[in-house]
What does this fold into?
Amino acid sequence: MVISGKVKGLVFNIQRFSIHDGPGIRTTVFFKGCPLRCLWCANPESINPFPEIMFNEAKCIKCYKCINVCPFRAIIQHFDKVIINREICDGCGECMNVCYSGALNLCGKYMSLEEVLNEVRRDIPFYQASNGGVTASGGEPLMQHEFVKELFKIAYEEGISTALETSGHAPWKALSSVLKHTDLILYDLKAVDSKVHEEMTGVTNKLILENLKRASLEAIPIIIRIPIIMGYNIATEEDIHKIGSFLSKLKGIERVDLLPYHKFGEIKYRFLGREYKVKAKPLNKEFISNLKGIIESYGYKTSIGGLS
Amino acid sequence: MGSITPRIKALRERILRTRPSISVERAKYYTESMSRTEGEPVIIRQAKALAHVLENIPIEIFPQELIVGTMVSKPPGAIVYPEGVGLRIIPEVDEVRTRSVNPLDISDEEIRMLKEEVEPYWSSRSLGAYAEKITPKKIIDMLYGGAYFVLTEIAGISHVSIDYPRLLSLGFERIKQMAEEKVKEYEELKSADPEVIDKALFYKAAKIVAEAAVNYARRYARKAMELAKDEVDPLRKEELLKIAEICNWVPAKPPRSFHEALQFIWFTQVVLHQENYEQGISMGRMDQYLYPYYKRDVEAGILDFEKAVELTACLWIKTNEIVPLFDTMLTIYFSGLPTNQAVTIGGFNEEGEDVTNELTYVMLEATRRVALRQPNVHVRLHENSPRRLLEALAEVIASGLNNVAIFNDEVISKALERKGIPLRDARNYSTIGCVELAPFGKSFTSSDAALFNLAICLELALNNGTSTVLNEKVGLETGDPLEFKTIDDVIEAFRKQVSYLVKHMIMGSNCFEVANRVVKPTPFLSLCIEGCFEVGSDITTGSAKYNFTGVQCVGLADVANSLAALDQMVFKEKKVSMKEMLNALKRNFEGNEELRQLLINRAPKYGNDDDSVDKYAQLVARIYSEEVEKHRNVRNGWFIPGMYSMTTHIGFGYFTNALPSGRRLNEPLSNGISPAAGSERKGLTASMRSVTKIDHTLYPNGLSYTVNLPLDLFRGKEGMNNLISLIKTYMKLGGMHIHFNIVNANVLLEAQKCPEKFRDLMVRVAGYSAYFVDLTKEVQDEVIERYLEVL
Ligand code: SF4
Ligand code: SF4
It folds into this structure.
């Protein structure tokens, strides 16, 4: 996004003390907007490439100030409840400004490079001690590859290590431009079966697999991240075998992380006025460690949850 | 790593499974002797009373023990100190037996004895009775109000770290001889200086108590012999014979082995606890002064790492035999049954060279295996601490153990130097109690003398000196708050209130120290700290080499957050008028939740690396430190500031009205230097940055930073490395103390429901560890809340 000549990034969260998004202690910048529609998405607020209002009803103190300030009359009172008409809301954030309780929050903020960097720089001493750094995540950070490229370039020059977490669903040009200043790639892989992939995420995996092959030739370590959602992307052990055998043809892969499905995102669907549809089978430890064993049988170091 | 031996398992289980009781024997014999010696010099009376106690209290050697000597008749238990605050339990005794938190057993006969034989004697002779006679009434009223400060010295002083290197090198027989020589010189009129009269009394008392300690140990020697006679198990028989030999030898003479050294220390701890109340009697740099014994034994082939761990574990378990006797009020302010016997390990020496040794690891390993509340194990770290130590430490922390804390050598030695302590002594500091600091073995710093409510000073500043909860004008008239034009006016008024209330606290503390000097000299303790014997005067007179009095502030984050909120909302953005703010505060935000939400969510909060509020935390920390350091104590030393709260932040919270931070009446204040509960929104690194913006060297008495983290954050090798990096970075940023509370919130909730299943679950409350099930519901809730936040 370009605003008055300068690239701005649409960021929905900057998380300090991240320890699951790459090595060491890191700051993760979450970019808003994603071309995939994974059914189980744990960050539903990351999907749309524009600011959105989130409403946490439990915090609402029923002052009804939001109703009067909304320039689009998108908020109404129904009995004592506050209801947002999402069709009308344009994400201007006016309501949030008067909502002292924090019930209304605008998710997504256009930030300048300098603003993001200033936050990132604050934990430099922790990165130094732990071999940590900055991670760009999302959403899909490559939807904002120009911003990420600039961010990584400056971070790189300042000695801050960089990691890119991506779905890989982006033009190779976008990916390769960012990789110039990337120290580590966290590459999400949901399925190698194209049909399964399309059903689960709304897009085929052609681009994703292609990009992964090309990226693996770049001499940048890659960690593959596989979400495990039983009955969705993984139905049987066979599905993991498929991934394993695909990976076995690649170089540069440092580790495979299995990320067991969790429900932490569920509440955010409610905040966004959306429905949460996933009904994944609960995972048992044994099954997960079987999957781990399978990936390991293809010669990869494998972890559950992302810490070695 | 090895695992827990059957012996340690059994000893540990006994402590955990036995319901604590009140032990009345010490009170009985102490009172018996004191009432017989009326009219004699007080220091002699105290010496005789201690000797009488040691001759008569029941002695017990439990199965499998290698280190012997019980603090109480049926451990774990509480000693009654009737000269202090021990008798406060009497009116509540029925409740004490049945209360949900920290119940203690006591028989009707024992109660009768306390009521009829002990209480009548002390009601007019206790420290409190004397203190009340000499302390200005306003201070006594303020103290009993519970809102402004807590003064602990009404119970006694304790809080020392014992000069074990010297005691071990001499033995109490030698000390007794030295005292005798001094008395002889006096009798032979070697000097006619006027001071020698008092000194002679001191040495006479010294002789009595040194002898009493030796005789006490010999009672155990005889007991062990008796038991050995009837013992059928040949292995145990051999152990008992060895115990008998050891108890004959120590603490009379310098120990000949590591085992003897530990037994020497334990007997000394027991005797100290019979004389001084059970708070913060600490063992100092154990891995340093015990290393020669360890090394010699290992070289002689009679000791190895595992055996040393087991012996150390035996001692560690013994420290859990005593619990404090707190009434309902004290339980609120000091929840969790802490006795805070600290052990200091690791760190650098007087030259600044690392002296971590094999025994450091022995002690960490013993701590991990014993996994009980006591002792407080304090690990000293500095820039050149070995990686192995960091790893061993991280492993202990990640195992979920909560009685281990970390201290930063560079920062602490600087803080002590700032108080005029020569560099070598500053570097050789040890820890006392939960987080306090002093040059090892040479200091009497009454490090837990008082705890001070900073937040209520802001309330007074906003109400022209009146407490709106207690409805009393205790503070200064600092002007009508409606006339305040800028935040600087508020700060000025706040500073004046702090200054004024600190003066009251200091005066109270000094009066109480005078009471201790007059009513309760402590001749045995005086043998255990460098300086007193040489000077020839009781430790309460200021004869130790270093004499400070430590007083801690509570509520730093609340004040910082409140100043930031006032500055932004009232003065800068004018979102709310001072009048509306004050009204809302007086009504505890009733009818104005909107304002409270504004304050909570829109004003910056300390703990998020935000300079606009962190600058107020810096300022408030400086104000308190400066005000405290203006004052001298009665032992010819200075008052020094600390920043920790035990659980007084909860007690003070009941009396501190709503604050501009958005905190309501009755909610706990913030704890130590930690951010307020619920206000850390940017993660641990941001919190650490905020905390270290404050100059920690302003707090030479020590401060506490407690960090609650979910256990699974530090899984695996990478997790461990991250934990080490966090510690190292925090230290590099200037952090003095840190303690990780690693538990799982679900476990805590479960423990709240079925306490019996979680007897040994430990959490860190404010700088000390407590069994979660021993905490009051309020404290439990707070721990849980803090915990949920970081998930
Ligand atoms: S402004 Fe916020 S708190 Fe007030 S009614 Fe609207 S959502 Fe609720
Ligand atoms: S974000 Fe803007 S348009 Fe949407 S509800 Fe709030 S005020 Fe109305």
In short: The interface with chain A takes residues 593-595, 597-598, 600-602, 609, 682-686, 689, 713, 715-719, 721-722, 725-726, 728-729, 732-733 of chain B (CB under 8 Å).
